[in-house]
Design goal:
By secondary structure, the chain is α+β, with helices and mostly antiparallel strands. The chain is built from twelve helices and 19 strands. The strands form five sheets. It has a six-stranded antiparallel barrel with strand order 12-15-14-13-16-17. Strands 6-2-1-10-19 form a five-stranded parallel β-sheet, with helices on one face. Strands 3-5-4 form a three-stranded antiparallel β-sheet. Strand 8 and strand 9 form a beta hairpin. Helix 10 crosses helix 11. It is elongated, with a radius of gyration of 25 Å.
Length: 411
């Protein structure tokens, strides 16, 4: 039996503690917040999309980088195993659109309570308000954890599992401090940036659409003439740019190099119609509104908030009678509807980012155990590592799988 210190009381840390405890080790979990699972409370808009019930083989297509590193962890503890774990512990689950799995209660807090109960069952001790300050080693092997709780205290142990997260949502305690401890031991952290986050835009007309949500649109991003992303789904305009599922995914999968080279986007507001079909639709609407002003003739075609912006982009006089709109002007309107334009200037900040892109290099960690290749007895899991996925429960699955493997691998 080993004495194990788990640093971080989020998803990966609590799952690691459960697995290590179930394996018979003496486990103490250290969390510098006043309660566990602070980030879990805000995931899935407070409902906690705790995994995705897709086939295990399909899971890896939702991980843009380093997916092969996860094979061992995910195949040993896949979404079915995660669902079984929570249901065995008494949490009823439901599966919604896109295979997203939620607690039946729609309360993220129930996920944390379930994990706390599971840890209690296997004898895990929890120390709150404890900030890890150093990992002690001797001859390349973990010997203890130094932590601060008013005074600095040494906790002698045989293994340390690091699960302090990245730097997204710093108000939940994800402040990057865990990376600093690992760097002192020789680990290297890749460049990091916010991911699963809204995109900032240049155009003055975008903030005028703040709060407007568009369903069933096609969103395309280009770097010069090269298409780097295309997705169909829901998009939301914000006070500083765009957000919503298709945009969050774009922030995750578009390679870093394109963000510095300039990106533009187009929204196809009517993707189910070809240009010819949409032109006929516009002509029908125009025929019904022949004597009205142009600005009053688009109500069936667009949300009211969008009409002034689309009119402005089309270049058509809003006061013009519909029966006086020329064929060329109608083509201009058609172009805006099928290619609503914008320019991306960057991503939102850490306070809005759901996850962190980047982290400790996966080449420095054994994918079969999550043990550091640099320090024996040191294990890394969750957002500590250079691992992230698209939205839909996949990032929490990474946390559960890597946390479980780390805890189960302690020897």
């Amino acid at each position: 039996m080993s004495r194990v210190a788990v640093v971080g009381g989020g998803a990966a840390g609590m799952m690691a503690a459960c697995a290590a405890g179930a394996a018979g080790h003496a486990v103490t979990l250290f969390e510098h917040n006043e309660k566990l699972g602070k980030k879990i409370y805000i995931t899935g808009k407070g409902r906690c999309n705790l995994t995705n019930a897709c086939e295990t083989e399909d899971f890896f297509t939702s991980v843009p980088r380093n997916d092969k590193f996860l094979y061992s962890a995910v195949y040993q503890f896949d979404s079915r195993a995660v669902m079984d774990f929570f249901e065995t512990q008494g949490l009823s689950l439901k599966t919604e659109r896109g295979n997203r799995v939620f607690p039946q209660t729609d309360h993220a807090s129930d996920v944390t309570k379930t994990l706390e109960r599971a840890m209690h069952h296997v004898g895990v001790k929890v120390v709150l308000g404890a900030e890890a300050t150093a990992i002690r080693t001797d001859d390349g092997r973990v010997t203890g954890l130094l932590y601060r709780r008013n005074d600095e205290i040494l906790f002698p142990c045989d293994a340390v599992i690091m699960a302090t997260g990245g730097v997204s949502y710093p108000s939940t305690g994800s402040d990057g401090s865990g990376w600093e401890l690992l760097k002192k031991l020789g680990h290297i952290c890749t460049d990091t940036r916010p991911s699963l986050v809204g995109l900032l835009t240049a155009e003055e007309y975008i903030p005028r659409l703040q709060g407007l949500s568009l369903k069933n649109v096609r969103f395309t991003v280009q770097a010069g003439t090269k298409k780097v992303y295309e997705e169909f789904g829901e998009l939301l305009f914000t006070h500083q740019g765009i957000s919503g599922p298709v945009v969050l995914t774009a922030s995750s999968v578009i390679p870093d190099r394109y963000f510095s080279s300039g990106l533009t986007f187009e929204i196809d507001l009517k993707p189910s119609l070809t240009e010819e079909q949409l032109d006929l639709r516009i002509q029908r609407d125009f025929a019904e509104n022949a004597n009205r002003r142009f600005k009053n003739a688009l109500g069936k075609l667009l949300p009211s908030k969008m009409i002034p912006v689309v009119i402005s982009l089309s270049g058509i006089d809003p006061e013009k009678r519909v029966n006086a709109v020329t064929k060329q002007e109608r083509r201009c309107l058609l172009t805006v509807l099928k290619h609503f334009p914008g320019t991306i200037t960057g991503t939102g900040g850490w306070n809005e980012a759901i996850i962190t892109r980047g982290g400790i290099r996966v080449s420095e960690v054994n994918p079969s155990t999550m043990e550091s290749r640099i320090v024996h007895g040191l294990y890394l899991c969750g957002e500590m590592l250079d691992l992230d996925a698209v939205t839909g429960g996949f990032n929490l699955q990474i946390a559960w799988s890597t946390g479980h493997l780390a805890g189960a691998s302690v020897h």
